[in-house]
Write a structure and sequence with these properties.
Length: 340
């Protein structure tokens, strides 16, 4: 995977309403209820993929009218990034934005918006439209120390190790990414993620989604003490940092909380496993076993133009293996934004 940054501002800082939870989990263990605080709609499993009415929203066509957008497309991108320009939020579309916000804040923690007509846009125009749409749901966050706000996630389908001495990821394909949260060992992880599918792979490449609430419920069933052990800080392996300039912490708890409730910070590959104590090793192992259980992870196939919003501490995400088209310069291409 190559993450090419764009829109760098070096002057900057370094469901539907009322939708019921969708899950086959019969009950949340008492120990999870006592120690974790998730919204009611956050408990779900793979079956949510068959309930698009909970997470899929059609973008109103007037929002994508090219006439009012022409001035935006002609603007300088740094001005768009720093400005308060967003897609029209007049009364005609307020209900749409409210439903999406409801799905993110009180529902499953993710929402798929269909769709931006990328086939009629240049890459630059798609980037700008993605930005002004996403700014409706949070403040843009830089993704590296240079101040890049947008990352072009362009993935090859070549096999290979991430590091020459990598044993944990041995044989793992770059395009077969396990579920994780973004910037797990960063000092201030983004609260939300926004992915625009600009180009899909020829075969495969589903987005994997896992509910943190359901994941912890399954871990608790293996042993009530395991969730509490996940609240103890785990060490970060700096040699596994993709960007050495990132501002990372030395250790952080996988299960934490803020004013919004319980949140996860998890990227197994970057944990210094050799420095875990026996109880932490057992707890992280239980988390991995739960993630591997059938029926936990939902898979969504994004089509070009689809925009996927994810609550980064409530929903883990990954991607399935895929094969690109055998045509030069047409790899799978998503545009990623971080929001706070």
């Amino acid at each position: 995977m190559a993450c090419r940054s764009a829109f760098s501002d070096r002057r900057g800082q370094h469901g539907r309403a009322g939708a019921a939870p969708v899950t086959s989990e019969r009950a949340t263990p008492a120990c999870v209820k006592q120690t974790c605080n998730f919204s009611e709609g956050a408990l779900w499993d793979a079956l949510i993929g068959a309930r698009p009415e909970v997470w899929r929203f059609e973008i109103p066509l007037p929002l994508l009218d090219p006439a009012p957008l022409a001035e935006v497309f002609a603007s300088d991108w740094p001005a768009i990034v720093r400005s308060d320009i967003v897609l029209d939020a007049e009364d005609a579309h307020a209900a749409f934005f409210a439903r999406v916000e409801q799905a993110l804040a009180q529902g499953p923690g993710f929402a798929l918006l269909s769709r931006i007509p990328v086939e009629a846009l240049s890459l630059r125009e798609a980037r700008l439209l993605h930005i002004i749409l996403s700014k409706r749901f949070g403040r843009l966050r830089p993704q590296d120390v240079s101040g890049s706000f947008l990352c072009d996630v362009v993935d090859s389908d070549m096999s290979g190790r991430m590091h020459s001495d990598d044993q944990i990821a041995l044989g793992r394909r770059w395009n077969n990414l396990p579920c994780h949260t973004d910037h797990a060992f960063g000092r201030d992880p983004p609260r939300r993620l926004a992915f625009l599918c600009f180009r899909a792979a020829e075969v495969g490449g589903a987005v994997r989604l896992a509910s943190a609430a359901t994941l912890l419920a399954r871990v608790a069933k293996m042993g009530p003490h395991l969730v509490e052990d996940l609240r103890r800080p785990v060490p970060f392996d700096a040699t596994r940092q993709i960007d050495v300039s990132d501002d990372a912490v030395d250790a952080v708890a996988i299960v934490g909380s803020d004013t919004g409730g319980t949140r996860l910070r998890y990227l197994n590959h970057q944990i210094a496993h050799a420095r875990l104590d026996p109880r932490q090793r057992e707890a992280v192992g239980a988390l991995e076993m739960a993630l591997a259980e059938p029926g936990l992870v939902a898979e969504l196939m994004l089509s070009p133009g689809d925009v996927l919003f994810i609550d980064n501490g409530v929903v883990l995400h990954g991607r399935g293996a895929y094969r690109n088209r055998q045509v030069p310069h047409t790899p799978r291409h998503h545009l990623r934004l971080w929001l706070s």
